[in-house]
Amino acid sequence: MCDFEEFIFTCGHSTFRLKSYCHFARNHPQHACRRVKKLRNCWDQGRPCDACAAEAEAAAAAEAERWRVMQMEMAMMAGMEQLDEKPPGLA
């Protein structure tokens, strides 16, 4: 029986890792095991998996970029409004 560990992430995903090969897999040329696979440990990670963390980081970067563009557009519009107004004293 090959031993495995499970890592459970806060995003709901989980991964399995081989902890040790069984006797039959150690002696097989390709380490193939056709026997029972036994789950030895389950570990709660307290963080999202790498894929979900990268996705959240990319979404945050995209939101920051949208915010920056919106701020620039608002500044440009405010500048145009100031140009449309005549300076005081020139009527």
Mind explaining what this structure looks like?
This protein is an alpha+beta fold and 91 residues long. It folds into two domains: 43 residues, no CATH class; 33 residues. Helices cover 44% and strands 24% of the residues. The chain is built from two helices and three strands. The protein has a three-stranded mixed β-sheet with strand order 2-1-3, with no helix packed on it. The longest helix is centred in the last third of the chain and has 35 residues. The chain is rod-shaped, with a radius of gyration of 29 Å. The relative contact order is 0.16.
Fill in the keyword field for this structure.
91 residues; alpha+beta; 2 domains; three-stranded mixed beta sheet; rod-shaped
Query: Which H/E pattern describes the elements?
Result: EEHEH
Cα-atom radius of gyration: 29 Å
What's the overall average pLDDT, rounded? 86
Tell me roughly what share of residues is in helical segments. Answer: 40-55%
Give the strand tally: 3
Task: Identify the quaternary structure here.
Answer: single chain
Give the strand order of the largest sheet, numbering strands 1, 2, ... along the chain. 2-1-3
H/I helix tally: 2
Task: Please give the alpha-carbon distance between the first and last residues.
Answer: 92 Å
Strand content range: 15-25%
Whole-number tally of structural domains = 2
- Biggest sheet record: 3 strands, mixed
**Uncertain spans:** none
Question: What best-fitting shape do the alpha-carbon axes yield?
Answer: rod-shaped
Structural class: alpha+beta
